[in-house]
Amino acid sequence: MCGLSGVFSRGDTRPSVIAMTRCLAHRGPDDTGMEMLASRSGEPAGMFGHRRLAILDLSSGGHQPKWSLGGRLCITYNGEIFNYAELKRDLESDGFSFASSSDTEVLLRGWEQSGPGFLRRLRGMFAMAIWDRDADAGYLIRDPFGIKPLYFAQVGTDLLFASEVRAILDTGRVPRTLSPQAVRSYLSTGSVAEPLTIIEGIHAIPPGCVTRVVAVGGAFKVERSDRYVEPFAAADPVERHAKSHVHRIRDALRESVRYHLVSDVPVGVFLSGGIDSSAVAGLASEVSETPIDSFTVTFEEADYSEAEPARDAARRFGTRHNEVPLSGRNLLDMLPDFFAAMDQPSLDGFNTFVVSRAVADHGLKVVLSGLGGDELFGGYPSFRRARLLAPLWKLPRALRTAGALGLTPFEDLRASRVRSMLTDSGVAQAAYRASRTLFGERHVSRLLSPAGVTEEPLYWQPEELDLSRLNVMQQVSAYEMTGYMRNTLLRDSDVFSMACGLELRVPLVDMRVAQVAHQAARTSLSGNRGPKPLLLEAVRDLVPESSFSKPKKGFTLPFEKWMRAEIRHEVDSVVGDEAGASALGLVPGEVRGVWSAFQARRPGVNWSRPWALYTLMKWAHENGVSCDSSAVTIPEAEPALALGS
């Protein structure tokens, strides 16, 4: 796990790569490197940078950026290839030799053998940049689910890329200007939907794609993005009875956890006490040759604490259990570090930051998470809503539209959700939007000044989604995985774990697990058997009863209470800043109105709405970002770092 950066350019790229690499130091405290690139004719082609967190092959053999043995390819790479040992054996049998035991070298040899086709054989999480001297082309690549981030910006004739948005900003070459479309996306859902980022001109590389960069007339630009894998290609239901599905899911989960334990350093696990994290912890304890350390966040507020079910699970699995107490006072003290770690504003993420810091302080570099179980196996309210809405979609569209028009006078969130449920393009999208809407469209327009209002789409359906072959429950799963999971959960998990020098792995977000889950979707998600019925059957004998007999909480924090007590003054000082709101294109009175409505305990205004506004304003202030980039002073790059050999 690492941080990568680079510039494709014919000019002097050292200052930019030095600035980005320095900004990413927290992602890789163990090593740093940079390499100059050249074209087939010897012209400059840019530079790669890297920060390393050593997990596999702790020797200098894992140093990056890394060249192929013949000097044709150079790679800078972030992530882990969990089946690299098998791939290495196959390549060796085909005559390839290796100078290290790193998965990075396996990627180089595999690309030499098969080019982009090799990517289809990978099981892992990754973002990478490859320069191919013979082809005079660069390639920017992400894993199929977008577990690892990668961003780029076109700046004149140069193309910059990095693992974090703020690294690109630190070059001083991209204005610190908010994207109006991204702000609207954030207000609508609590995070910015890819391919947007919060900064105008910086975009996310699409997951599951190879993005080819070439020089045209002296300028390096994106030529095209080719999809190398379809995450939902194997989603057609296979007609097997439920018992077969249960066995196949259990086998896939166990195999994935075994792969995700591959490491040359100890591995821990987040253990909330729910079924997802308990399943991961239980399987890890089964297949690991050494005891597992487990971690859970605890609260004084009994309604939120998962301490008891987590303890039950830890006792059952024999993990070395650690509890991380958190109070409102702790949260207030940790806010400066939290915002220092935040790459883009997010409604979520503080829970991940807290537990990641505790795991890193414990001395671990790798931890497993149960993220992905709700999306794959039907754990969210959106799945239940889809079942309830299905009969409504049998009514004529004109009748549903008339019902939506009857709600026009109402502007609260509930009315907005019902309107979308009546008029969206399908049951799955309606159910997903009803579950994930933070501010309704009318309220978003009121929060934004006229200059910030845009009619651009919010990417409710990413381009890679082909829903035509999926049933309604599979469609909801696809929306959750490419929406909330990708734009919030995975992004936050990466940013806040890496801020602590910790590699967070997600065994449930795996191609094989996703395939068997979607193939079983008609059986596991149909009817009304409660959330995640098939996952529960697959691990019932493994996890304690307390993991599935109590209502789901996960790592939920008591924000509702804390925002009226310990952190009230802090939130008030930010959301009440009229100049700060105006600088972001927000209407100060509307922002203050949300905060006042929360304090007055108005119906439909819970903690998430004022917290989202606070987070956006606080993050923008801390990073010198506004609607007007001309008012921002951008720091100059510091002196050069040493180049890698």
What report would you give on this structure?
The chain is of the alpha+beta class. Helices cover 40% and strands 16% of the residues. A six-stranded antiparallel sheet has the order 2-3-1-9-8-10. It has a six-stranded antiparallel sheet with strand order 4-5-6-7-11-12, covered by helices on one side. A five-stranded parallel sheet has the order 15-14-13-16-17, sandwiched between helices. Strand 14 (293-298), helix 8 and strand 15 (320-325) form a beta-alpha-beta unit. Helix 10 packs across helix 17 (472-498), helix 13 (397-405) runs antiparallel to helix 14 (413-423) and helix 14 (413-423) runs antiparallel to helix 15 (427-436). The longest helix is centred in the C-terminal third of the chain and has 27 residues, at 472-498. It is globular.
Low-confidence stretches: 631-645
Structural class, please?
alpha+beta
Outline, from the CA principal axes?
A: globular
Number of strands: 17
Question: What is this structure's SSE topology?
Answer:
Layout (H helix, E strand, L loop, with lengths): L1 E7 L5 H10 L7 E8 L5 E9 L13 E2 L5 E9 L2 H10 L9 H12 L9 E9 L4 E6 L8 E5 L2 E5 L2 H5 L10 H10 L12 E3 L4 E8 L2 E9 L14 H19 L6 E4 L4 H13 L5 E6 L8 H11 L2 E6 L2 H14 L8 H12 L4 E3 L4 H5 L3 H9 L7 H9 L7 H11 L3 H10 L4 H7 L24 H27 L4 E3 L5 H9 L1 H4 L8 H7 L19 H4 L5 H8 L2 H6 L4 H12 L8 H15 L23
Parallel strand pairs: 13-14, 13-16, 14-15, 16-17
Antiparallel strand pairs: 1-3, 1-9, 2-3, 4-5, 5-6, 6-7, 7-11, 8-9, 8-10, 11-12
Helix pairs in contact: 2-3, 6-7, 6-18, 6-20, 7-8, 10-17, 12-15, 12-17, 13-14, 14-15, 15-17, 22-25
